[in-house]
Amino acid sequence: MKKRFPSLFIFYLILFLFYPGNSIYLEIFSHKRNLFEKQNEKKIKLTLNPLPHLRDPNLLPEIKAQGVYVVDLNSFTPIYQKNPQMKFIPASTTKIITAMVAYEIYRPEMVIKVNQMFPFGQIMNLQQGERLTVENLLYGLLVHSANDAAYVLAHNFGYQKFVDLMNKKTKEIKMMKTNFTDPAGLEEKNQYTTPFDLALAAREFLKNKYLSKIVATKEIVISDVEFRYFHRLSNINQLLGEVAGIGGLKTGYTENARENLVSFFVKDNKKFIIVILKSEDRFDDTKKVINWLQENLSYLRLDPL
């Protein structure tokens, strides 16, 4: 009897599904056929972004940086690359990730107290006991590349927890060959990234209109909440305001890293990310890339089938 049970079960199941009586499935397919015919009549509309195309593939920009990644932002199509997966010291390009993490864990109007001095490298000269909004610290971090702003943001949350969130963020946006050990980019042991990974970071950063506005700021004066201390912040990026179309993004330098620069460039509604790593002249290399883009790049418009 037990052996017959599976066979009987399958028999009645098939009978239930396909018996031409009042089966719900027969009702749907036989009497509601117009539902499926309407679906078939619908046309799928595809929107394809124009793709970048080099007029002369043999004409390349003459730059000396050891790591380069130039990409069309809309399609994320690489246009020029040099050692895109090689690991480099990020220096202050680290602060791209620092800013994104700070934006996620703090509110811009939140007030943070400076509990200790951080007089290392590029600073905005924060004073012990000074109280500033997170927004003003972000201006210090991204405009002036202030190391003390980076450390204040990290220590207020919990230094190691903050660094852990930085590395969690890199994994979220698929920066698979990047590791950070401090929020300012000063440490060099076991801290690395690649040109491709920084392009991913820049793409994610530019989705945030609030942060994008900050990196496009040439100069600003900010103060503490009691207006006792004032800090004049000048953007380290010399191309901002000098080269039309440059809208930030982030510089970086240490003696071992040499000169790094991640740039956001706009021309004729086309948007680009330009990553320059380990250069002897990051601004000149970036200008050469921009000139090359304007002379040698066109776009192919693909019509959907």
Description:
This protein has 305 residues and is an alpha+beta fold. The chain has 2 domains: 38 residues, no CATH class; 250 residues, Beta-lactamase (3-Layer(aba) Sandwich). It has 10 helices and 11 strands. The strands form 4 sheets. Strands 3-2-10-9-8 form a 5-stranded antiparallel beta sheet, with helices on both faces. It has a two-stranded antiparallel ribbon with strand order 1-11. Strand 2 and strand 3 form a beta hairpin. Helix 4 runs parallel beside helix 6 and helix 5 crosses helix 6. The radius of gyration is 27 Å and the shape is globular. The relative contact order is 0.17.
Quickly list its features.
305 residues; alpha+beta; 2 domains; 5-stranded antiparallel sheet; two-stranded antiparallel sheet; 36% helix
